[in-house]
UniProtKB/TrEMBL annotation:
GO terms for cellular component: membrane. InterPro entries: EmrE-like (IPR037185), SLC35_F1/F2/F6 (IPR009262). Belongs to the SLC35F solute transporter family. This is Vacuolar membrane protein, putative.
Amino acid sequence: METAQLLLKMPTTSSIWAAYNLNRYFVGVALLLGVVVLWTASNFITAGLETGDDAWNKPFLITYFNTASFTIYLLPTLWRWRKGARHHAMGQGHVRSGDAEHAASPSGGYLPIPSAPHEEHLSHPSHRKDPERTERIDGVTLHHLPPLTVRETAKIAAWWSIVWFIANWAVNASLAWTSVASVTILSSTSGFFTLALGRICRVESLTSTKVIAVIASFLGVLLVTHSDSLSSTPPPSPSAFLSLSSASSHPIFGDALALTSAAFYAVYVILLKVRVVDEERADMQLMLGFAGLFNTIFLIPIFPLLHYTGLERFSLPPTSSAWFICLVNFCITLSSDYLYVLAMLKTTPTLVTVGLSLTIPLAMLGEFFGLGLGSGGEGGMEGMTVWSVAGAGMVCVGFGMLGWQEYLKNKQGNEGVVIEREGEYEYGSDREDE
């Protein structure tokens, strides 16, 4: 009798993975909350920089500076590489200077005899011919994945850097034409694009809840766009359309850029989830560092093109306050995008869209207190309409439904990811420090 009760109390494989998945889920939510605050602050800061009294409307250059900040993430990797190379050199020198008898004899204690590499290859499960495999244990589907190599990490960073730059340039440019609240809300429609692209890439399933949620969020976008169109000015001339330094406000053009940003955000989120799957599979600092390095080098030729065509005249920040804003935004991007990627990998792309929608009340609160005056907002109650508030509410409800469904999915514990490394099994977050 006692044995039967003890067996009933023992955790099942499903319950263990449910606890693990929920723990990752809540950690991801905590990271998203931090990203929400940082991104909303960054939007207001960038809007003030582009449309204030000392306007410095250079969305491409601002995005370039922010992207270049990722290169800093290469420093820890270089330090570890240099430290490892130095230790290796010291070890080689120790072997050369040591007594050959001690080196060959176990009693000397200098060099333990290693096992044959081919024996390890045959004995350890992580060295099987097909490291990427799926198995089912006690009703739980486990996906076994090998860690990404440096070359694979660099390849992913190469395409990711391009998509990331377009997404961030579009949102930075849109802040000069429409309000921060509208940019934040329309950027949240990345959930619509995420669901569509996720279905194509087979990382998202179509359910009635998801479809209803996407429709609700899309209707919310229509209401917000309608609210902006009521206060929009006549369409800009061709020269004003090409020159982003124009100080006039054209909400519809800004909304279009914000939607473009949302689409590219969905592209890089889904493709990153498909290629990386789990944050323990890759060195995310190395990946971001490569992305920053690629953009820093290969985007330099675009500056003369933008300058001589008049699309964006090259100039440095004109005032000390503008330099300070750039530095603050630089730091925000450096930290928030790293947290954003970690949050997405710890949870799901759908949950990331919920995080984006959480910036809506913060942005509207900022507009209410006049923080978005420089970006086309009127401030106070005059800066809000019934349409914009209703649209924001529908977007929140839609993405809230998506987030709740993902929570229930994680709670079931019927799926898990196992990262297999040489000489060890790695179940997610218990990664050893290098």
